[in-house]
Amino acid sequence: MKKRVIDLREQTQPLLDIVSYGRGGRALTSAQRAYVARTVHRVPEVVVKVSGGARTLAGVERHMQYIEKKGARGLETDMGTRAGGPLFARHVVENWDLDIQALKHYSKKFSLGKPPKLVHNIIFSMPPGTSAAKVLQAVHKLALNEWALQHRYAMALHTDEAHPHVHIIVKAVSEQGVRLNIRKATLRTWRSQFATNLRELGVAANATERAVRGETRTPKTTRIYRAALRDDSTHMRKREIALLRETASGGRMSDPGFTDIYRTRQIVVAGWRALIARLRESGNHKLADDAHAFVSGMPPVRTEKGHLAESMLNRRKGRSIQPQEWTR
């Protein structure tokens, strides 16, 4: 199943609230100051990504079996039932009436194109060292607020990797017949809720856009990321070969994406500078100093191609570069 990761940096709205925080007006609220402080002090960032979604009944069952098999507590549904095995996956599919949803597409006389998604696959995760139980608890609360009595869902906590994460399968069409369309704004809302729920449990968590933190790396799909960890990513190998061919003749590396990323960085820095000035005006000098240090310490603007070129150069110099350094 082909997986798709939605890049949270692509958006039409202002980059989070940094720009609006920097505008004139009343002093920042305590909640706004706390948000800025979490960002500049690099509080751990939550991760929420859509890893795909099945369009067939067999695809739904396979994914349920996969997340249940690696789950620390099995597969848990929105009704509180917990079990596992292929028969349980089949039971969930039938209980959610997914066969009826699939039949609707194929029963159309002139059904063209790909069938619509039957479910969305979503992953909520936190960095290594975070309490897995609290990550699961935070996701439980978010799921209840977002989908209870509307979209059926099932989840599984995975602790097989260093970072605890929860896989959720959400039925694409609600019990009221409304389709769940996951947009960038939807993901931003979920990230914010997830981080808030974790903080209520005493876990330091933040939800800030990558661009606001000065990060320019493009996130990879789960498949590419895991292949890179094994040093077995054909995607990255092809990109390296293409880059070597481009620079073999001694010519300059073309990087058309640099202009857009650089423009975004200018907007981010301008917003931070205005915010720092506003903090000083209101007497928050310590936070202003921390924000200034944060902006000054942002890494240089680089595209994915630039990061790849740098990692290749470092390997030539004999330095060991871990795959996650250029796949995260």
Mean pLDDT: 80
Distance between the termini: 21 Å
CATH architecture grouping of the largest domain:
2-Layer Sandwich
Helix content: 40-55%
Please identify the top-level CATH class of the largest domain. Alpha Beta
Oligomer: single chain
Structural class: alpha+beta
Strand content: 5-15%
* CATH third-tier fold name of the largest domain: BirA Bifunctional Protein, domain 2
Indicate how many domains the architecture comprises: 2
Instruction: List low-pLDDT spans.
Output: 1-14, 223-230, 319-328
Provide structural commentary.
There is one protein chain. Helix 2 (30-40) runs parallel beside helix 11 and helix 3 (57-70) crosses helix 4. The protein has 328 residues and is an alpha+beta fold. A hairpin with a 6-residue loop joins strand 5 and strand 6. The longest helix is centred in the last third of the chain and has 24 residues, at 258-281. The relative contact order is 0.15. The chain is 48% helix and 9% strand. It has a six-stranded antiparallel beta sheet, sandwiched between helices. The chain is elongated, with a radius of gyration of 22 Å. It has two domains: 44-200, 2-Layer Sandwich (BirA Bifunctional Protein, domain 2); 222-327, no CATH class. The chain contains 13 helices and six strands.
